[in-house]
Amino acid sequence: MVAITERPARRAEGAAGDLVFHGLTVLFAVLVLLVLGGIIASLISGGFLAFAHFGVDFFLTSVWNPVTEKFGALAPIYGTLVTSGIAMLIGVPVSFGVALFITELCPKWLKRPLGTAIELLAAIPSIIYGIWGLFVLAPFVQQYVEPALIGSFGSVPVVGLLFAGPPLGIGILTAGFILAIMVLPVIAAVMRDVFETVPPMLKESAYGLGATTTEVVWQVVLPYARTGVVGAILLGLGRALGETMAVTFVIGNSHHINLSVLQPGTTISAALANEFTEAVGDLYQSSLIALGFILFIITFIVLAAAKLMLLRLQEGVGASA
Amino acid sequence: MLLSRTLLPAAFAAVLCAVIPARAAEISGAGATFPYPIYAKWAEAYKEKTGTSMNYQSIGSGGGIKQIEAKTVDFGASDMPLTPDKLAANSLQQFPMVMGGVVPVVNLAGVKPGELKLDGTVLAGMYLGTIANWNDKAIAALNPGVNLPDKAIATVHRSDGSGTNFIFTHYLSGIDADFMAKVGENTSVEFPAGLGGKGNEGVAAIASRTDGAIGYVEYAYALQNKMTYVLLKNHDGNFVSPNADAFQAAAANADWSKAPGFYLLLTDQPGKDSWPITGATFILMHHQQDKPDAAREVLSFFDWAYRNGGQLAEGLDYVPMPASVIAAVEASWKTITGPDGKPVWTGHAS
Hints:
A: mainly alpha; B: nine-stranded mixed β-sheet; three-stranded mixed β-sheet; 14 helices
């Protein structure tokens, strides 16, 4: 504003800078695509031997025998989906509550400490969660949670099958618990940020019309923040599906499919963490890489499904408006 | 902007520097994780004495075998010895470097370390699930006078691929045909039941918390954590307690002359003091060396370790190889030759 005469010169310099900046950002973006493509290609070529050797059976059997070199991915796939399912079942409602409390109900003085605490939880490395899970959470689950579950549901038909067997403390359920604790801060932090983007005017209008807090949350905040909420859940699910160390410590690492969540199981990433270093033999190693490829596909399907769901939701909004 | 302009060249320069080899007197190896602490300790002491540095990457036995086949390292290391056929196919040579033992540990109320006696058949039965309760007659027959509770046996195994798994399953497969058929031997196997813990610490944590558990860990781990070890019946029918002397006895009583390529696991060896689940970890090298100087450095290092590294090994609860085995190993080194066909190693200097 002050030195008007300087303007053209600065603009020219800025234009050159813009060009370089544009080029750099394009380069970085392409780099991401290249890395992604490279990972997919190497997973496919690495796992090709296993896919070619076992065919469809690789997805349909749960035998995992390095001695006879017979491999099937069903048990890790099952374990991955079930532990992530349990984590979402517990993690999503709790994080939703946490985020709502912080943005809508929390007294001002508590807001900041609570928010920081959640961000700190998200920053704890997963190996710490794993060790804590093994030494603290698993004994607690074994002593208090699992006996209570067996006591209340063990004799109920059908549902009882989910809680069959002795309380071991190590197994699918504990892995689900630890994943729930791990995804909670991620989901809660994103949800909180999303809820804070809701314009105060909307909420105040609703309150002005005599709406209760519950009504404001369900009919104003949630519809407005819908996309962000789904995004937050997906971010959490992504972490749960791929989590390795924490799960490896508490899941019991057994390649058997058990309907009971109290029994040990395994997940794709746990199997990789356990076996990759000492996997001798081409077929064994190829089968492990094939597992990695399957995890990639599962994550891709989850993301795609969520994108589709979001599109549906937006169409719905358009139609009703 | 400015940051990336100045940082990028700097990063490239750093990468370039890392690629250029630093010095000639440097040997490299890769492989098994189990011996890593002692190899690192030896390397440190050896460098202080000779100036030659040894760089060992503990990437796992599978990785070690791959790296030595690809000749990216001077030596590979594996917890599982390669069969003579496999050695020949890749023109490799192997020798045992240092030993360790695997110790079954239990968690039974009222049972003290060294009180419970087991043998291979009973141990195999437990891991197969055919012996499922601590009051089973087979266990009671070995333990007259010990109060065995009516409690389910919870077996705990190593879930990660490891030399410990290999030695343990090799022992049970040798003793029990049923175990051989149903589970077999490998660095990782499919157990019919039980809990899997990651690493010695995982097995120990699960076993120490689960009432009625039995697990197996490396000797050093059982010793340092004061776990409830059991006595095992050895080949001669004696019940022995796990300790360095018992492991050495197993190695000394083993007949290495009948093991081509040192393909010998030290499980169930004869001798009244031999601990039955003993095993060595192995070094892999090519017969034909393109760089005889590097190979000579490697062999000099291992020669030094055999002769002077015993105390360091014992300090970390590894067991040094007995002198008779060292002599046999060093005699076998004459088949490691340079491009001129002459042995690269001509006896130790001192």
